[in-house]
Amino acid sequence: MRIGILGAGGMADALGTQWARAGHEVMISGRDAAVSASRAASMTAQADGAVVRAGGWAEAAEFGEVVMVAVRQAGLAGVLQAAGAALRGKPVIDVANAEGPFDPTRPIATMIRDLTGGHVVKAFNLCHVDVWRMTPPVFDGRPLAVPLCGDDPAALAAVRTLVTDLGCTPVDGGGLARATLLEATAAFMIGLWFGGADAQAVLPPISHSGVA
Ligand SMILES: NC(=O)c1ccc[n+]([C@@H]2O[C@H](COP(=O)([O-])OP(=O)(O)OC[C@H]3O[C@@H](n4cnc5c(N)ncnc54)[C@H](OP(=O)(O)O)[C@@H]3O)[C@@H](O)[C@H]2O)c1
């Protein structure tokens, strides 16, 4: 599929390179055309023969059949405005985490939906960018599971494909109203990691989850 990426930073690089390798057409975009072009060239060099393009915000939004929003929270509203109406009705992947204290009254995913009219799917926000560079992300023999929250079946199906292309397992996380739980989970887990705790160790295996 054609994937437009709003952003030319770490997440654009990590996920965009993987998807280009998997045979998708990828266009990244950023504030500085020269920086985006240079990032696209380095992605192309690692993409097993695929060419990664660079363009402006609106160009990448138009290009994508699926569009991933991967800009810092401070720039989100401005970038989505610059992307224009092209996101209306399209699958839009939201990878964002809150910067600064987490505010449950200001969910990022629904803000993106309201600003774009896109079919937003929240995903990929729980792991550090370097995990998304792994080929594949497998830990102790288990492929990484990636929860998705979204309302539109076609958008969810497209993102499930992109998760599978990374060698990961998609997990149904419920509707977009639950995306704020993913944002809260990221804030909580990142706090544990930065405090030196093994966040993965706080959850028991399913055999001990109380589910019959
Ligand atoms: N890094 C991670 O480990 C990680 C993991 C999960 C989720 N995320 C989320 O992924 C998103 C992107 O993170 P990233 O690591 O890719 O960040 P990044 O490497 O800093 O790149 C972010 C992109 O946003 C642009 N940007 C930054 N501030 C902007 C502003 N005020 N206006 C317009 N554009 C702006 C940057 O442009 P310039 O290059 O011009 O600065 C760059 O293209 C964030 O929402 C973050 O919470 C990150």
TrEMBL record:
Pfam families, per database record: F420_oxidored (PF03807)
InterPro entries tied to this protein: NAD(P)-bd_dom_sf, P5C_Rdtase_cat_N, STEAP_metalloreductase
Key word Oxidoreductase present: yes
Coiled coil location: none
Keywords: Oxidoreductase
Source taxon at top rank: Bacteria
The UniProt record lists the keyword Chloroplast: no
Domain named Pyrroline-5-carboxylate reductase catalytic N-terminal: residues: 2-97
UniProt cross-references to PANTHER family, sorted A to Z: DUDULIN-RELATED, REDUCTASE
The protein's name in its UniProt record: NADPH-dependent F420 reductase
Species for this entry: Nonomuraea helvata
